[in-house]
Amino acid sequence: MSQRNTLVRSLHDIGLAAWFGGSLMGAVGLNGAAATVKDPKERIPVATVGWKRWAPVQMAAFIAHGVGGVGLILSNKTRLVGQREARANTTVKLVLTLVAAGSSIYSGFLGARMAAHAGEGTHGITEPSPDSSPELASAQAQQRVLQWLTPALTLVLLILGAQQGEQQRPVAGWMKRTTKS
Question: Do the domain assignments include residue 94?
Fold first, then answer.
């Protein structure tokens, strides 16, 4: 008998999609657009406003993905015990989810550090100007990496989720049905 997990699967997938899409759009669109603001001292404040507006949605995405992930693990515990591949995929996804969450949270802390030095001006959001303090330049250098790490990690999580969906297909049953003639 088939067991449906539509709610937890939807929470898991929609939360992850929002997390991936928001982090990628932030790196490409928001940070990229804020870097074009004419006054270098306004670039970080403009980006900060955008990221602060996104933060509640990001938190909701984290929670939805987490609740959905726990729900899927609980509803698939028998399968996880019996299928080594599913267990390995779930373990990798859990580790990558924690790393991506850490990356997102630390990125927020770096954004706050950058905002505290916004009056110094900057070449871009993650590119210091010659007048940038060492504190600002350090935060920007770290943020330059994290702004791409988070969407990369969440993209891998999306791919692993697709792989898990493929692992649930009844391949053996399909083969038996199609070869009977």
Answer: yes
